[in-house]
């Protein structure tokens, strides 16, 4: 007979093993993050030096005198050796100082904190659409390989890869907004709803719910739905394709035939056992998809006049605002690093085999 103390120790062992695995992965991830961040800042710094934009001219203008040009160049440190410039740049970035924006005359970090929630709101709904629809579509395509279900899903995925996002956005606005009136037009809110809800998270849909302003919420939601659906379709195409590939590999494994031979239902074998074994790979796919949504929203935000990070980067680039461009680039890189770290920490939670690695 097993004593209560022995049972308690046995039950605590898996929890301790999981905690130790997560701690080890966190330590390795932190080292990887530090090295990756160093490489990221190095790349963005040298891009800023080779890009055909003169930051001094962007500040003083074309008609400034040579003395003014030289003084401003010295003030921002461009007369120093490149290693010294990089060290100063790295030190400022670590303190959150990306310089001031030429367009807004405010600190770039302040601008990024204002525009990033809009892109985050757009990307989160797009990711939700892509995962909720893409994973089941990939499973269905894999279980009906070569049949009409597989052909239809592969065709829809191919369309998602092939169609330019700006073209889809324009067609969507023409059809669902201008013709049918099913959704709201460009922007995040109608003018009548501006400044009703104070910013808490920066995401209008969430802030309006927190404030109990349901009319503002629905107006924001119908503005958000179309651009999020366009981006969600693109992520759906990638998630469905990768899920199909992972599931085909699992369905060839011997354990699938063994569980079917034991009388387990095909539904349970596919949706519980086989799909459960591909979640580690899907976590990586979903993390990369989310990062690409944050990074690749430039054209979508431009078409829909969505005041997010993508539109901010586009306007900054067209106005030679180098500080803003580099600050936004570093932010996207940091997001990718954070997503990879989070996905690495999630692995032991979805796959017990990863806990001992």
UniProtKB/TrEMBL annotation:
- One MF term in the entry's GO annotations: dipeptide transmembrane transporter activity
InterPro entries linked to this entry: BPD_transp_1_N, MetI-like, MetI-like_sf
Task: List each coiled-coil range.
Answer: none
Q: What is its main location?
A: membrane
Q: Where are the transmembrane segments?
A: 30-51, 122-143, 155-178, 220-240, 278-304, 324-347
Enumerate the subcellular locations listed in this protein's record, separating them with semicolons.
Cell membrane
Which family is this protein grouped under?
Answer: Belongs to the binding-protein-dependent transport system permease family.
Please give the name of this protein: Peptide ABC transporter permease
